[in-house]
Amino acid sequence: MRKIYVSPSFLSANFNDLASDIDLINKSEADWFHLDIMDGVFVPNISFGFPIISHIKKLATKPLDVHLMIVQPDKYIEKFKKSGADILTVHYEACTHLHRTIQNIKSVGMKAGASLNPHTPVSVLEDIIEDLDLVLIMSVNPGYGGQKFIENSYKKIKQLRKMIDETNSKALIEVDGGVDFTNNKKLYQAGVDVLVAGSSVFKSNNPEEAIQNLKNI
Ligand code: DX5
Ligand code: ZN
Protein backbone atom coordinates (compact mmCIF):
# COMPACT_ATOMS: atom_id res chain seq x y z
CA MET A 1 0.00 0.00 0.00
CA ARG A 2 1.34 3.44 -0.99
CA LYS A 3 1.76 6.04 1.74
CA ILE A 4 -0.86 8.77 1.66
CA TYR A 5 0.34 12.29 2.48
CA VAL A 6 -1.84 15.21 3.53
CA SER A 7 -0.68 18.78 2.93
CA PRO A 8 -3.09 21.35 4.44
CA SER A 9 -3.28 24.60 2.45
CA PHE A 10 -2.67 27.67 4.61
CA LEU A 11 -4.63 29.85 2.18
CA SER A 12 -7.64 28.90 4.33
CA ALA A 13 -5.84 29.33 7.68
CA ASN A 14 -6.62 32.05 10.22
CA PHE A 15 -4.05 34.80 9.55
CA ASN A 16 -5.09 36.61 12.75
CA ASP A 17 -3.64 33.73 14.71
CA LEU A 18 -1.31 31.93 12.35
CA ALA A 19 0.80 30.51 15.20
CA SER A 20 -2.17 28.49 16.50
CA ASP A 21 -2.87 26.99 13.08
CA ILE A 22 0.82 26.14 12.62
CA ASP A 23 0.81 24.45 16.02
CA LEU A 24 -2.34 22.55 15.09
CA ILE A 25 -0.73 21.18 11.92
CA ASN A 26 2.49 20.34 13.79
CA LYS A 27 0.49 18.23 16.25
CA SER A 28 -1.78 16.65 13.63
CA GLU A 29 -1.18 13.68 11.35
CA ALA A 30 -0.56 16.04 8.40
CA ASP A 31 2.73 15.53 6.56
CA TRP A 32 3.53 18.89 4.94
CA PHE A 33 2.52 22.56 5.02
CA HIS A 34 1.06 23.64 1.63
CA LEU A 35 1.80 27.33 0.96
CA ASP A 36 0.13 29.01 -2.05
CA ILE A 37 2.04 31.91 -3.58
CA MET A 38 0.01 34.04 -6.05
CA ASP A 39 1.25 37.06 -7.97
CA GLY A 40 -1.92 38.59 -9.45
CA VAL A 41 -0.51 37.95 -12.96
CA PHE A 42 -0.45 34.18 -13.46
CA VAL A 43 -3.64 33.94 -11.39
CA PRO A 44 -6.31 36.58 -10.68
CA ASN A 45 -5.43 36.81 -6.97
CA ILE A 46 -2.54 37.82 -4.70
CA SER A 47 -1.75 35.82 -1.57
CA PHE A 48 1.43 36.20 0.49
CA GLY A 49 5.19 36.11 0.05
CA PHE A 50 8.59 35.67 1.67
CA PRO A 51 8.00 37.19 5.16
CA ILE A 52 5.06 34.86 5.81
CA ILE A 53 6.96 31.80 4.54
CA SER A 54 9.92 32.66 6.83
CA HIS A 55 7.57 33.13 9.78
CA ILE A 56 5.90 29.77 9.18
CA LYS A 57 9.31 28.11 8.74
CA LYS A 58 10.37 29.22 12.24
CA LEU A 59 7.45 27.41 13.84
CA ALA A 60 6.76 24.48 11.50
CA THR A 61 8.15 21.05 12.32
CA LYS A 62 7.21 19.57 8.92
CA PRO A 63 8.38 20.26 5.34
CA LEU A 64 7.10 23.37 3.52
CA ASP A 65 5.42 22.41 0.24
CA VAL A 66 5.42 25.70 -1.68
CA HIS A 67 3.10 26.02 -4.70
CA LEU A 68 4.09 28.93 -6.95
CA MET A 69 1.33 30.46 -9.03
CA ILE A 70 3.61 33.15 -10.42
CA VAL A 71 5.24 34.11 -13.71
CA GLN A 72 9.05 34.05 -14.00
CA PRO A 73 9.64 31.80 -10.97
CA ASP A 74 13.37 31.48 -11.87
CA LYS A 75 13.95 34.98 -10.53
CA TYR A 76 13.06 33.95 -7.01
CA ILE A 77 14.28 30.34 -6.57
CA GLU A 78 17.09 31.25 -4.16
CA LYS A 79 14.80 33.53 -2.15
CA PHE A 80 12.28 30.73 -1.71
CA LYS A 81 15.08 28.44 -0.56
CA LYS A 82 16.29 31.06 1.93
CA SER A 83 12.73 31.59 3.18
CA GLY A 84 12.49 27.90 4.05
CA ALA A 85 10.82 26.09 1.15
CA ASP A 86 11.61 22.36 1.06
CA ILE A 87 9.58 21.46 -2.02
CA LEU A 88 9.12 24.09 -4.74
CA THR A 89 6.46 23.55 -7.40
CA VAL A 90 6.20 25.73 -10.50
CA HIS A 91 3.47 25.80 -13.13
CA TYR A 92 4.18 24.20 -16.51
CA GLU A 93 2.17 27.04 -18.08
CA ALA A 94 4.46 29.69 -16.51
CA CYS A 95 7.79 28.15 -17.58
CA THR A 96 9.14 28.45 -21.12
CA HIS A 97 12.25 26.50 -20.10
CA LEU A 98 10.77 24.09 -17.58
CA HIS A 99 13.74 21.72 -17.71
CA ARG A 100 16.14 24.51 -16.75
CA THR A 101 13.84 25.73 -13.98
CA ILE A 102 13.56 22.24 -12.47
CA GLN A 103 17.36 21.81 -12.51
CA ASN A 104 17.77 25.23 -10.89
CA ILE A 105 15.39 24.32 -8.06
CA LYS A 106 17.26 21.07 -7.40
CA SER A 107 20.68 22.73 -7.60
CA VAL A 108 19.91 24.91 -4.56
CA GLY A 109 18.79 21.88 -2.55
CA MET A 110 15.01 21.74 -2.84
CA LYS A 111 12.71 19.04 -4.21
CA ALA A 112 11.23 20.13 -7.54
CA GLY A 113 7.62 19.91 -8.68
CA ALA A 114 5.65 20.83 -11.80
CA SER A 115 1.98 21.70 -11.75
CA LEU A 116 -0.65 21.42 -14.50
CA ASN A 117 -3.74 23.58 -14.86
CA PRO A 118 -7.04 21.76 -15.50
CA HIS A 119 -6.81 22.32 -19.28
CA THR A 120 -3.21 21.10 -19.67
CA PRO A 121 -2.79 17.44 -20.66
CA VAL A 122 -0.50 15.16 -18.67
CA SER A 123 1.36 14.18 -21.86
CA VAL A 124 3.31 17.50 -21.86
CA LEU A 125 5.39 16.09 -18.97
CA GLU A 126 6.53 12.93 -20.81
CA ASP A 127 10.02 14.25 -21.48
CA ILE A 128 10.64 15.60 -17.99
CA ILE A 129 8.88 13.10 -15.76
CA GLU A 130 12.10 11.40 -14.62
CA ASP A 131 13.51 14.76 -13.42
CA LEU A 132 10.53 15.60 -11.25
CA ASP A 133 10.11 14.87 -7.54
CA LEU A 134 6.45 15.82 -7.66
CA VAL A 135 3.63 16.52 -10.11
CA LEU A 136 0.76 18.68 -8.89
CA ILE A 137 -2.54 18.19 -10.70
CA MET A 138 -4.77 21.21 -10.25
CA SER A 139 -8.34 19.98 -9.78
CA VAL A 140 -9.69 23.55 -9.81
CA ASN A 141 -8.52 26.62 -11.69
CA PRO A 142 -5.78 28.08 -9.49
CA GLY A 143 -6.37 31.32 -7.63
CA TYR A 144 -8.85 30.64 -4.86
CA GLY A 145 -9.70 28.18 -2.12
CA GLY A 146 -13.15 26.66 -1.71
CA GLN A 147 -13.88 25.85 -5.38
CA LYS A 148 -15.63 22.79 -6.78
CA PHE A 149 -13.53 19.74 -7.71
CA ILE A 150 -13.27 19.15 -11.49
CA GLU A 151 -14.19 15.51 -12.23
CA ASN A 152 -11.93 15.26 -15.29
CA SER A 153 -8.98 15.26 -12.85
CA TYR A 154 -9.40 11.51 -12.19
CA LYS A 155 -8.63 10.71 -15.82
CA LYS A 156 -5.48 12.85 -15.69
CA ILE A 157 -4.31 11.27 -12.44
CA LYS A 158 -4.72 7.76 -13.88
CA GLN A 159 -2.75 8.73 -17.00
CA LEU A 160 -0.02 10.26 -14.86
CA ARG A 161 0.14 7.21 -12.55
CA LYS A 162 0.65 5.04 -15.64
CA MET A 163 3.35 7.35 -17.01
CA ILE A 164 5.26 7.34 -13.69
CA ASP A 165 4.94 3.59 -13.18
CA GLU A 166 6.18 2.86 -16.70
CA THR A 167 9.33 4.98 -16.31
CA ASN A 168 12.07 5.36 -13.70
CA SER A 169 10.29 8.41 -12.30
CA LYS A 170 9.95 8.61 -8.53
CA ALA A 171 7.60 11.59 -8.72
CA LEU A 172 4.80 11.83 -6.18
CA ILE A 173 1.37 12.78 -7.50
CA GLU A 174 -0.26 15.66 -5.62
CA VAL A 175 -3.83 16.85 -6.19
CA ASP A 176 -4.99 20.34 -5.24
CA GLY A 177 -8.46 21.88 -5.22
CA GLY A 178 -11.81 20.75 -3.85
CA VAL A 179 -10.32 17.77 -2.00
CA ASP A 180 -12.34 16.46 0.95
CA PHE A 181 -13.42 13.22 2.64
CA THR A 182 -15.91 12.49 -0.17
CA ASN A 183 -13.26 12.13 -2.89
CA ASN A 184 -10.06 11.22 -0.98
CA LYS A 185 -10.44 7.44 -1.48
CA LYS A 186 -11.24 7.70 -5.17
CA LEU A 187 -8.26 10.02 -5.66
CA TYR A 188 -5.96 7.59 -3.88
CA GLN A 189 -7.27 4.71 -6.00
CA ALA A 190 -6.66 6.74 -9.15
CA GLY A 191 -3.02 7.09 -8.10
CA VAL A 192 -2.65 10.15 -5.86
CA ASP A 193 0.08 10.24 -3.18
CA VAL A 194 -0.48 13.72 -1.70
CA LEU A 195 -3.82 15.33 -0.92
CA VAL A 196 -3.82 19.13 -0.58
CA ALA A 197 -6.77 20.35 1.44
CA GLY A 198 -7.57 23.96 2.37
CA SER A 199 -11.18 24.58 3.28
CA SER A 200 -11.96 20.94 4.15
CA VAL A 201 -9.32 21.19 6.92
CA PHE A 202 -9.28 24.79 8.17
CA LYS A 203 -13.01 25.52 7.76
CA SER A 204 -13.91 22.32 9.59
CA ASN A 205 -15.01 22.39 13.25
CA ASN A 206 -12.31 19.85 14.02
CA PRO A 207 -9.31 20.24 11.68
CA GLU A 208 -7.31 17.42 13.32
CA GLU A 209 -10.16 15.00 12.78
CA ALA A 210 -10.59 16.26 9.19
CA ILE A 211 -6.92 15.41 8.54
CA GLN A 212 -7.40 11.96 10.06
CA ASN A 213 -10.44 11.40 7.85
CA LEU A 214 -8.48 12.40 4.75
CA LYS A 215 -5.76 9.91 5.69
CA ASN A 216 -8.28 7.17 6.29
CA ILE A 217 -8.05 5.55 2.87
C1 DX5 B 1 -5.80 27.16 -5.23
C2 DX5 B 1 -4.70 26.67 -4.34
C3 DX5 B 1 -5.14 25.62 -3.38
C4 DX5 B 1 -6.27 26.01 -2.46
C5 DX5 B 1 -7.06 24.77 -2.21
O1 DX5 B 1 -5.29 27.94 -6.24
O2 DX5 B 1 -3.63 26.13 -5.09
O3 DX5 B 1 -4.04 25.08 -2.66
O4 DX5 B 1 -5.87 26.58 -1.25
O5 DX5 B 1 -8.18 25.10 -1.47
P1 DX5 B 1 -9.41 24.08 -1.30
O6 DX5 B 1 -8.87 22.83 -0.66
O7 DX5 B 1 -10.33 24.84 -0.41
O8 DX5 B 1 -9.97 23.83 -2.67
ZN1 ZN C 1 -2.02 25.01 -3.94
Which characteristics define this entry?
8-stranded parallel beta sheet, binds zinc ion, alpha/beta, 217 residues, binds D-xylitol-5-phosphate, TIM Barrel
SSE blueprint and pairings:
Blueprint: E1 5-8, H1 18-27, E2 33-38, H2 50-59, E3 64-69, H3 77-83, E4 87-91, H4 98-107, E5 111-116, E6 134-138, H5 153-165, E7 172-176, H6 184-190, E8 194-197, H7 199-202, H8 207-215
Parallel strand pairs: 1-8, 2-3, 3-4, 4-5, 5-6, 6-7, 7-8
Helix pairs in contact: 2-3
The structure holds D-xylitol-5-phosphate (DX5) and zinc ion.
Write up this protein:
The longest helix is centred in the last third of the chain and has 13 residues, at 153-165. The radius of gyration is 16 Å and the shape is globular. It is built from eight helices and eight strands; from the N terminus they run βαβαβαβαββαβαβαα. The N and C termini lie close together (10 Å). The model has no long low-confidence stretch (mean pLDDT 98). It has an eight-stranded parallel β-sheet with strand order 1-8-7-6-5-4-3-2. The protein has 217 residues and is α/β, with parallel strands linked by helices. The chain binds D-xylitol-5-phosphate and zinc ion. Zinc ion binds next to strand 2.
TL;DR?
This protein has 217 residues and is of the alpha/beta class.
Q: Specify the number of helices.
A: 8
Assign the CATH topology.
TIM Barrel
- The helix-strand sequence is EHEHEHEHEEHEHEHH
Our estimate of the beta-strand percent is: 15-25%
**Helix-and-strand structural type:** alpha/beta
* Cα gyration radius (Å): 16 Å
The mean pLDDT is 98
Largest sheet composition: 8 strands, parallel
List the quaternary state of the chains: single chain
* Shape-level CATH architecture: Alpha-Beta Barrel
Termini separation: 10 Å
